[in-house]
Structure formats: C-alpha cells, structure tokens
Amino acid sequence: MVHLWHRAARLGSAVGLAAVLAACGGGVAASPAPPASPVASGLSASPDPLSTTLPSATATPSTPAPSPTATALLPEPPAASLAGLVGGGTAAGSLGSFTWAGGGSDAPWIVGTRAGSVGVGRPLRLTFGGPVQPTWTAAWAKVVHGTAESPVGGAAGVGDGSVTAPAAGGDWTLGVTATFGPGANATYFWRLAVTP
Amino acid sequence: MTTRPFLRRLIAGLIAVVAVGATAGPTLAATPDPAIPPAWPLDSALTYLWTSSAVPPSTIKSAVNAAAADANGSRKSRGPSFAYSSGAPNGISYGPSNPCGVNGLACFQRNPASRYWHLWFRENGHRYDWGTLSWCEMTGSPNGCFQAETITLDELGHVSGLDHHVNLPDNSDYGDAVVQAYSHARPQAGWSASSFGRCDVATLQQAYGLATWSTPYSTCLDIPTTLLLTASPTATSTGRAVTFTATLRSAGAGLLAGNPMASRVVVLQQRSGSGWADLLTMPGGATAGSYVAAYAPKGSQAFRAVFRPAAEGGRAASSAAVSITVTCTVAPCPLSVGQADQ
Q1: Region B248-254: what's the mean pLDDT?
Q2: Residue A58: its chain B contacts at CB < 8 A?
Q3: Helices B58-74, B148-160: crossing angle, 10 deg rounding
Q4: Distance (Å, rounded) from C-alpha A72 to C-alpha B75?
Q5: For B201-237, how does the pLDDT look when each residue is reduced to its tens digit (9 = 90+)?
Q6: ipTM at complex level
Q7: B136 at interface of A, judged by CB pairs closer than 8 A
Q8: Which residues in chain A have Cβ-Cβ distances shorter than 8 Å to B200?
Q9: What is the secondary structure of B106-151 as a DSSP string?
Q10: Which residues of chain B are within 8 Å of residue A23 when distances are taken between CB atoms?
Q11: Cβ–Cβ contact B189 with A under 8 A
C-alpha cells in the first residue's frame, strides 16, 4: 500500500521536478494554466481546479489513495526511507509539510505509527528518491504520552546520508527536513522504538 | 535563492554540532525565509471566494478573512494583498475533498504567471494516523487544536512566495516566522500568530520591496546603508546659517538597493576634540530620504551626519565629514577654531 502511495508521489515528483528545474532556469513558463500538477500536465482529465471536486483524500499513510484519487493530490516530493532498523528493515518516511511544483501542504510534527526499532546510538541510513539529492537536517523528538517533545538537532547533510539513533532509549520520532531547490522542500517523519 | 541560506544554516549547524561541549559555540542568527519563485507583480490585489462545492463554515470564513487582514497589515512590503470578493477568480475550499496529501492540515497552489492560486482546508474532525484535526475556532480552543487564522496566514505566505522558514537547531527562532515546516498546535509557541514574523517579512521585502520609504527594514535583514551629507554654503561668516542636507539610502541587493529611507533618526554631529558630538536631530526634508537642518557655526568646523537605526534591519551609517569655513566678522572672534562650539 505504501508502495502505491510512493509511486504516486514519484509520478508527481517527475512532474514537479520538471517545474522546479524550469523555475531554476528562469521561472515558471508563462502559461495560463495552474502550476505544474497532474491537472495542469494532462496526467488526468480534470477540468479547471476551481470547478474540480476532488476525491476524498484518505487519512492514513497505511491506506494510501490509489489512482485516480492519487492523481488529484498535489504533486509531492520524492519519498525518503530509513534503513538499519532492527531486523534489517527499511521504513518509508511519512510526508509532512512540503512545497513542490508551485504547491504545498502544511502539517505538524507527526507522531504516527511506529515504523520499527533501532538500538541506542546505532546508525541509520537515510536515502532519498528522485534524481535531485537534497540538503537536509534531522532532529529527534521524544514521544511522551503520544506527543512529541521539543526536537533536538541530530544531523545534517547533502544527499543520502546517515543519522544516529538517540543515546537514550524510548519512544522517539525522527524528523528530516530536505531542501531540493527553490520552492521544493519536504519534511519526513519516522516513529521508532529506541532500545537499549 | 533557497539553497544559499539553507547551506549557510547547514554549515552553521554543523559547526554548532562540532562545538557541542566547547566552552562557547557560535551565535547563530535568524535568516529570511527561502522564497518560492516566481514572485507576483508588485502590489498585486489577490481576491478569493468560497468554492461553491466546498464552502467553509462561518467560523473558518471569519478566520480566513482575519488572516487576510493579518497578511495585509503585516506584509510591510509591496507583496500581494488579499481580500474576499464575490467575483474573485480564485477560491478557498474546505472539506474532505482536497489535494493536501495524507498529513496536510491545509494546502495551496499558486501560479503568478496565470494569476492562479487556491487554498484548501481539511474539515474539522478529520482523523489522521496521528490524531484528529481540531480547528480552534470551531472547538473552543482546547489544547492540541490548530488556529485556522494562523494556518491561513501560513498559506497566504506561501501564496505570496514564502517557503518554510529554516529554523535554528534549537528552534528558538520559531516565532520569527509563521511560514513553518512544523505547524504548531495550542499551546505550542506561535500557535496563534496573527501577523507575519520578521523573517517572513524579510523575504517579502526582498521579493517586493518596501511598502513605503518610511517602512522599516525587517530586523531579519542586515541591509547596508549610505549616508551623504552636503552643506550650503561651505564658507560663511559668523552668525550666518548653513543648510545641511543628509541623504540616506539603502545599499542592499535587488529591490532593496538605492531606496530612500525616510522617517529615520539622522543626527548632525560636529567635531569635538578627537571625536564627535551630537548637535541636533535633522528633520525630514521635502524629498524622501533627505534630512535638512540649518545651523550657524560659531567657527570653522567639521560636521557629519549619522544614521541611528531603531528596531530595523538597516545598518547604522555615518557620512563623510564636511568642513565649514567661518570668517569672523563680529568681535570677539573665537581664539581657536574647533573649540568655539565645545
């Protein structure tokens, strides 16, 4: 299910990246249409966005919206994933706020469902989809009674990189803010059990 | 444009990480929000109406209208203004039919080239993986609710061309921007902001210039200034007034270059020993950015003007010295030039 969501995100990313690159090269092309999006790019047959009744967007990352609902979403940044979890698993990040291809969405620091566990102080491998490797910062926030405490800085980098799990065990969220270019950034979250 | 401040912050952050445990780390300064290109034409009046198929409840309508007023009142630039109009070409939608993605509270699209923009708001009570959406205006402001007015202001900032603020590693500058990557719920810091933060304003000023020549530069900016002092005449006789004219301009980049700076504090000083002493505050002149004062020197003397910024991002500046030669025509004449006015 997550894969479907990511496929939709990558589809939007391709469109979005083209718009971003166009913007980098001298601004958005003079078009009477709304910004690059599935609607504007012809990926769906939706009419003018003002008169479009968009299908309901589902609420949870675990139940991604299949096409055609996904094509009605704003174009989204590439997915990010985290490897090095206990058991060798990889977990996709939950997309929070972003700006991309002339659009964007705002969300809080997300404390979602647990993506896995990691030992204290263990390295985690962070990878980004798409052709553009972003600059990024990462911060950890401890989860207390289901709420994230104030995040503390953890790491920063360019492109795929690594972050280190907190030195204290417990319920934590990792938040990563990635910047792909002008008007193109994203936040991703993972909720992890950090075990001694 | 986006990456430069981010990289600067990134490098600063890395330095800070390295410096952990050291006796004193570097002091980091807030930076303007990154920009989303392209900008709108200057002074764009952007109107909106409620999408007929997704009309917000009255409390959200009020919040949106309040946020429009907040944006208009705090943009301090020639950035877009927002107003409701029944004939508006752009819309605001509320409800479950939205393109905001899995976790979005609200979202936007913009395209200045076609004068298109749109906002969408999730419906109150929407269930996310991480909780249930509560708009404060609709639920009596319990802890955990989101202020629709503040979230709208964030979205209008995006529509204006503001990208998410890059916070300091400790988030101590969260209050410097409304356009944030992490929306805060009550009672977190900034949950009920009703005006753009100084680093939002900074980017609006960079993109659109100042609202007026009297508008202060955002303190999130650090704009060099130039101050020129002229005098007429430069040679006079005792008791005759000299007219001093100071001209203050910005020396930033783009739309912040060469702007007259009006309604500032510019002080005329005279040489005093090896230093300078304040003589008078120069009133604004007929031309924006000019400051004019008449003064009758008692003897030959050097003068200069100084700009003293008050809570703004324009740097202090002083002019070059201007020498005035005074010929004594009325006894007793000063014994020594330079001591007469001390």
Answers
A1: 98
A2: 102
A3: 50
A4: 32
A5: 999 999 999 999 999 999 999 999 999 999 999 999 9
A6: 0.86
A7: no
A8: none
A9: EEEEEEGGGTEEEEEEPPTTPBPSS-B--BHHHHT--TT-B-HHHH
A10: 37-38
A11: no
